Structure formats: structure tokens, C-alpha cells
Amino acid sequence: RSSATFPIRTSRVTRPTAAWVQAELGEEFAAPVLWIDPAPGAEPRTTVYQAELAARRGAAVSSGHRGFTGNGYLDFDNASGDYADFTVTAAAAGQHTLTFRYANGGRSARAMGLSVNGTSVTAGVRFAPTGSWTNWREVSITVQLTNGTNRIRLSATGQSGPNLDSLTVTG
Q1: Among candidate residues 18, 35, 44, the one with its CA nearest the CA of residue 169
Q2: Which of 17, 54, 92, 118 has the fewest CB atoms within 10 Å distance of its CB?
Q3: List of residues 6+ apart from 7 with CB closer than 8 A
């Protein structure tokens, strides 16, 4: 049996699903010394995707109405053909909440089609009036996402959509 004394430097390494403390033992050795899994019921992961950065057709990036986040928002003008495609990442497969931040200064709700990875979500998304184009609200829907990369598409279906500021994915 032998013993040695090494200077130990520790660092904290994190991932969306776990964390560990790693001890570096000199130049040649490193070992995890403490592993921490998230507690059951821990806060779900939340990521915000700015609408103006989404792939799109027809919808224009605008900044004419105050109150948006990021560098602008998407303005859906056309009754059909307009869409926004968000590429989102899920740390695990399962149910995730999609929350759309929007403004609808019109007098009636504006419905848009929703698809996840090319599969239509029957309910779509209904954007209720917000009272003006500078009043921003949120509407949420729960969908199934796969582990890794997913494509979320909002499409105009017979009427123009709202001004769309962002998509928040939680789960």
C-alpha cells in the first residue's frame, strides 16, 4: 500500500440533465468525485426562441409596435402560405409545453395551423384579441416532442396570423 499527495483542483460541470464535480489530480488523472442527478419534480428546462429568427415564408420581420422582445417580431399578413418554422431541441422525448407570445390588435381571434415534425396538431393555435398591437399575451399548447431536434411550424390557414414575438419550449 502506498500513498501520495497531489494538489487537487475541482471544477463543476453541468449538462441539462445532471451535474458533477470533477477532481483533476495533477496533469494525468481526472476523476468524477460527486455526481448529482436532478431531483424528481425538478424545474423543467425552458428555452426561448425568438420568432424573427425562425425560418419563414410570407411573414415579415417587423419592429413597428413596441413591447416585443429580441430584435423584432413576425407579422403574418397573408391568409394562406405564410408560415414560421422553429427548430427546437428537446433534452428528452415526451410532453412539452409550447408557449407563443403574440399581439393581436384585431377584433377577432386568429387561428393558425400547428405541426410538430410534419404531423398536424388537430387543435392548432387560437390567438385571442389582445386589445391592440402593443399588448402582448401568451397562449400555450402541450405537444409530444422527440429527443433532440424537432420542427415546430405555425401556418396561416384561411386568415392572417397575429404578430408573433417568440416561442418558449418547456419540458
Answers
A1: 44
A2: 118
A3: 26
